[in-house]
């Protein structure tokens, strides 16, 4: 009897038109997964063993049910029938189906399976809605399923983009669905609004258990509104696509709530998640995001920056090398990334070489010409760049007006130039502030190579904006959790300590060292005219070099034997 009952359920489920299983009287058959409305259930799927989920005793005031299932990175397939049809099944990590109920129907079934050779841990839940609630994906014209409540996610190094199908107005059981595009009045689906929400998982936590637990906070409307951050509200006239900055290794959950402001009702789409990386990639996967080349580069950069933070003003030439390195390295990295197909490690090495050349050039320019204003302009512009980056790291960067590149770069440049202009009357203070803030921030970048911190995106977002044209449309929200507070405290402590130490140590000293070339020229003239100076008797450089070469050449000549060499005369 149990086998006959199971066969009857399968046959009736396959007959439905993409809605759900037919109503069956009796207890659940062995092997079925019993679900309750609004209750999460953990389950494990294995490749050769598909499962069937069943929801019984559906209330008569429910008009549609959304069944959703989630996994971390292994794909799961959900369908209305055992036979997988493109318009009646979905495959992925965060997928769901809408079951439109018929009159007198009180039970639904769904078929679950996986093609992954390894067992897949999942969490699933059915959610019920009434006829006044909007139907997510009810006006789908882009994706395969007729009514598609899913959010489709794509990501690359720069941005993460979510897309979803427009919703439709709710309707009673047995009634015809409202037309999607026949009219655009207030009694059509064009009155609906879409709230896009973003939720960050704990930093540096890639565990499956944490993800599945936090996904439960993003499935229902009240929980989404209570736990997530609303990023933007879209109208029916807007494109149902939103972009965010990619945060590699950081778990993020996205969801969309469609609202009917006329009836004051709402429905949640199926939430989706990403880490902006692959768990299965052999190189650069989520478990090993930090490249060795990145760690070496930023560790050396941080050591130099830490020295500049505390001693930069005293060691003026070293600071100029540091500033020249940043200037040349930043612009050269953008140039070679946009114009050449070099691999990342090669680009980093070339950037280090170009940055070193830029640092040497700035030191040489100071040594020869001694133009303090020009050198301090470079220093002030780097500090202005950091200040402007911090400004656009705040919610100011998400304003719609700054999605226009011209407005963004003009505003950014004005902020960067404003800093050296303001401090042009007190160059020593400007220099010490630059040493403190820029040098200490290099430590933050190095810490990000070993321990994730959102503060690295202060400058990384600007670099992405310069490299990727479409990054202008991305929202640049980042999590701010325990690690970030610690790193922020370290950054502030280093900056304040370095600035305070240098101000106290430089009190009563000359503001800046004198022109090196003039000192060298004056010293050379003094040596020529002062015969009492011991350096006066030092041979010229050319004679010293020839003398040293003669000594080295003598080391390779055979030693002449001692004794008489003149032949005896007869």
TrEMBL record:
GO biological process, one term: cellular response to unfolded protein
Transmembrane regions: 296-313, 320-336, 348-367, 374-394, 406-423, 430-452, 485-503
Membrane topology qualifier: Multi-pass membrane protein
The entry's keywords: Membrane, Signal, Transmembrane, Transmembrane helix
InterPro entries named among the record's database cross-references: TM7S3/TM198-like_dom, TM7SF3
Pfam families, per database record: Ig_TM7SF3_N, TM7S3_TM198
PANTHER family named in the record: TRANSMEMBRANE 7 SUPERFAMILY MEMBER 3
Name of the featured protein: Transmembrane 7 superfamily member 3
Originating organism: Bos mutus grunniens (Wild yak)
